Amino acid sequence: MKEATLSKQADNYTDDFVKLLEESFNHEFKTADLVEGTVVKIERSGILIDVGGKTEALLPLRELANLPFEKPEDVISVGDKKKFYILREENEEGQLTVSLKKVHHAQNWEKLDEIRKNEETLSVKVVSLVKGGVIVEVFDLKGFVPASQLRTGIPHESLIDQELSVKVLESDPKRNKLILSEKLCLAEERKKIAEEIVTKLEEDQVIEGEVVRLADFGVFIDIMGIDGLLPISEISWQRIKHPSDVLELGQKVKVKVLNIDKELNRVSLSLKRMEENPWVKIEGQFKEGQVIKGVVNKITNFGAFINIFPGVEALLPVAEIREGNVNPYEELNLNDEIEVIIKRFAPQERRIGLSIKDLSKQTL
Description:
The protein is α+β, with helices and mostly antiparallel strands. Helices cover 20% and strands 38% of the residues. The strands form 4 sheets. The protein has a 5-stranded antiparallel beta sheet. Strands 8-7-6-9-10 form a 5-stranded antiparallel beta sheet. The longest helix has 24 residues, at 2-25.
């Protein structure tokens, strides 16, 4: 009975030992991770490293150092304890392949991940333009700033060699993927200073700014460190199809402060109000019954808009083109210069009515 008990205890001790031994080898090694190890043997084919795995990891000689060396012992010695970069996960024999020269590379990825977690700001240098964004250099690594995360929204040549302040959106060393955002960084910085700047601005104030982004609906102008919106309707008194018809990225321009929203820290701007209102200019220059020439700016189902003075459009209704059923798209062409008669003149209401039909009657 006693012998059976002792035998059972011995079996339990053996099972516990095996279990502990297996647990000691049960490390999850992943590519691009750093692992601590001890040099156990230096061979011609490579160096064996004890990293706590089932077998020693292999450090190929080509992965020993970036600088040339005559023999491995010039760089590393048996018993050295170092951090190693996992190049390849365990093979069928349970052996890892590691690198010493990539440790600095891996440490930089770790540093970037810490920066991402702490939401810190990075300074990076633009090295090239690619489809959909720009490539930047940081910690000897290459990162990508998508166009949607650029302040300008559009990659352009003047960005090359420029320093950008960015936030880390994604850092994945296994996929060699580093995504950064300039917009996120700017939003944080401007949130801190916007309130102070907005309190210094006044409506109708003239201020110089820089065009930093073009959009279909308008332009963003950097004024004193914050972006003010210049709506497309406030760019020119004349009809324009897109802000790029008048402005370009990086252009310095003087604008007038149109509106200030202190609660939201938003500023609306106007460029056209830097000039005299053309509707004021035309008072006294035109009158009803006057025959003039104008250029067709826009054609619609109900008529056409005719430019009769820089920044002033008058309406030529479809019923005033000629008698009968009229298709304005067949009667008129864009950019054509036509002769018309002013049928209604009310510049205070910004309304001018034209007629071709009455013009033909007048000549009879």
